[in-house]
Design brief:
Layout: H1 3-25, H2 30-52, H3 54-69, E1 73-75, E2 78-82, E3 90-95, E4 98-104, E5 111-114, H4 115-121, E6 129-134, E7 137-151, E8 154-164, E9 171-172, H5 174-177, E10 182-186, E11 189-193
Parallel strand pairs: 4-9, 5-8
Antiparallel strand pairs: 1-2, 2-11, 3-4, 3-7, 6-7, 7-8, 10-11
């Protein structure tokens, strides 16, 4: 038996002695003493389980909080985005350090922001324009580039971004999604892997 094991055994014996002596001093009937001893064993077993699985409980708490608040969950290089009530995936990110909320759209070829957001984050739009067919018809977008686009720790630099003067919805498109090593829909979650 090593020194650590001997110390742990002594600690356990002291706890058991404390519990047994506290029950014996009360001079309760044997049946009631046995019930109280089982209750103490259950308390210590519960405390041990909470301590042993504290990492898993922390992860479970993060997942429950994510579900309740509808926010994304970042775990290392993996970002999990819950499906919103409207059936879409919405994620908070940033462009050049400014917070932006995006609708994730795998049907959009490029990331697109409103003119208001483009001005806020300092996107320069020159004379370059592109005509795009959407579900709402043909629109003309201004071409631009962002120094940094970040989604929950997944950062890309020098990203092409279109500016839509006719819509306030900011769309995270395939130019970002295709830069990932993997992305998929798993049940009600969109999973992005850096």
């Amino acid at each position: 038996m090593t020194g650590d094991q001997a110390g742990q055994t002594l600690y356990l014996v002291l706890w058991l002695t404390l519990i047994v002596s506290s029950l014996a001093i009360r001079q309760l009937p044997m049946k009631q003493t046995f019930k109280m001893a089982l209750a103490w064993v259950a308390i210590f077993a519960g405390a041990f389980v909470l301590f042993a699985f504290r990492g898993e409980f922390s992860s479970l708490w993060s997942r429950l909080r994510t579900e309740a608040l509808g926010t994304s969950l970042a775990e290392g290089s993996v970002v999990r985005i819950p499906m919103a009530e409207d059936g879409h995936f919405w994620v908070s990110g940033s462009i050049n350090g400014h917070d932006v909320r995006f609708l994730v759209d795998s049907g959009a070829s490029s990331t697109t922001v409103s003119e208001e957001i483009a001005e806020l984050v300092g996107l320069e739009t020159g004379m370059r324009r592109v005509q795009v067919e959407t579900a709402n018809g043909t629109i003309v977008l201004k071409k631009s580039r962002a120094d940094r686009l970040t989604i929950d720790g997944i950062e890309r630099t020098d990203v092409g971004i279109d500016v839509n003067p006719a819509d306030s919805t900011n769309v995270l498109g395939m130019n970002f999604l295709s830069s990932l090593s993997r992305w998929s829909v798993e049940g009600r979650w969109l999973v992005l892997v850096s």
